[in-house]
Amino acid sequence: MGEFMSELRLILSMKVTISRCREDMSKATTRNAAQAAGTPTHDQIAARAYQLYLERGRQPGHDVDDWLQAEYELMQLPVEKLAKLDPPKCKTKISSRRSLVELVRAAID
Q1: Does residue 17 contact residue 63 with C-beta atoms inside 8 Å?
Q2: What is the number of structural domains in the chain?
Q3: Residues 6 or more apart whose Cβ sits within 8 Å of residue 46
Q4: Percent composition of the chain: helix, strand, coil (DSSP 3-state, to 5)
Q5: Is residue 97 domain-resident?
Q6: Which alpha helices (DSSP H) does 29-62 contain, by range?
Q7: Domain boundaries, position 15
Q8: Quick one: which of 107, 49, 100, 54 has its CA closest to 74?
Q9: In a domain, 107, yes or no
Q10: For 83-95, what is each residue's pLDDT tens digit?
Q11: In this predicted model, what pLDDT tens digit does every residue of 40-69 receive, in sequence order?
């Protein structure tokens, strides 16, 4: 009975977290705009957070940690793709400026 109540509390807290995140996502952008920008959707984050929860052995009390970890992992994918791009040719004479691609590569290394 105690395990059932723990899982019920976890599910309820995840529902609250998910509903808050949905409100934030709807205020910030539409789902299609998020996909076009390479931002993970709410459903993608929720699915990964649930996967992390299962991998931890369904331990309650880590819903926010799982959500943030899922966001972080999914947000890193576009950064990794960016790091693989060739830096753009500089059109100015200022050689001390670094391109965004070079900065991402430096941060990942």
Answers
A1: yes
A2: 1
A3: 18, 67, 70
A4: 70, 0, 30
A5: no
A6: 31-36, 42-55
A7: 2-77
A8: 49
A9: no
A10: 777 766 656 555 5
A11: 899 999 999 999 999 999 999 999 999 999
Q: How many residues does the chain have?
A: 109
Q: What is the DSSP string of 61-84?
A: T-HHHHHHHHHHHHHHHHHHHHHT
The residue to which tokens 């309650």 are assigned: 60
Structural tokens at position 44? 């993608």
Query: CA separation (Å) from 34 to 17, 22, 23, 73?
Result: 19, 13, 14, 16
Helix 42-55 to helix 63-83 angle (10° resolution) is 120
Q: The tokens of 105 are what? A: 């590569």
Would 83 be classed as within a structural domain? no
6 belongs to a structural domain: yes
